[in-house]
């Protein structure tokens, strides 16, 4: 796993706070959360509690307060700097084990920082933590080559194929598109073309 000291004030200043170099902001996450909550609402999958693994600057928490104010948010972060700054719970996607599951697990921009073994363990752990749905974003080789602005995206990561992730996710989840995955057996009925598998 990465050294938590890598994710210090300078890292977050560059990739999240400075307008010219940030990869994302609160407005982008609010749009994303609107999509996720809207689609899960359409599927009648309740979102009463959310586990945000790698919660960073807290943009999901902010979006949830506006879009789903009754949903409980639990933020877990690997960065010592952010845990101290925001009071997040310290933990890793690889082995965080609170002894319960969540309606929605969010893991955005985390897995590319893990080596192959740790990333595979994290996917299994995400499945253990998910009761309903997972929102997952991980930078792949193809994304780096074709889909991102390299001036604002951290390339010092483990770039893997999308198939590395899909193969491991298929064991536990049904892909819904847009980074959303339904936990197998969560009780929702999907039409054949709603699944991407």
Explain what you see:
- The protein is α/β, with parallel strands linked by helices and 197 residues long.
- The chain has one domain (4-185): Rossmann fold.
- Helix content is 36%, strand content 19%.
- It has a 7-stranded mixed beta sheet.
- The two termini are 30 Å apart.
Which structural class fits the helix and strand makeup? alpha/beta
What is the element string, with H for helices and E for strands? HHEHEHEEHEHHEE
Q: Roughly how many Å is the radius of gyration? A: 16 Å
Number of strands: 7
State the CATH architecture: 3-Layer(aba) Sandwich
Summarize the structure.
With 197 residues, this protein is of the alpha/beta class. The protein has helices spanning 9-17, 26-42, 59-67, 80-86, 116-129, 141-147, 162-169, and strands at residues 49-53, 72-77, 89-90, 102-108, 130-137, 173-177, 180-183. The model has no long low-confidence stretch (mean pLDDT 92).
List keywords for this structure.
197 residues, 7 strands, Rossmann fold, 19% strand, alpha/beta, globular
Describe the secondary structure blueprint for this structure.
Elements: H1 9-17, H2 26-42, E1 49-53, H3 59-67, E2 72-77, H4 80-86, E3 89-90, E4 102-108, H5 116-129, E5 130-137, H6 141-147, H7 162-169, E6 173-177, E7 180-183
Parallel strand pairs: 1-2, 1-4, 2-3, 4-5
Antiparallel strand pairs: 5-7, 6-7
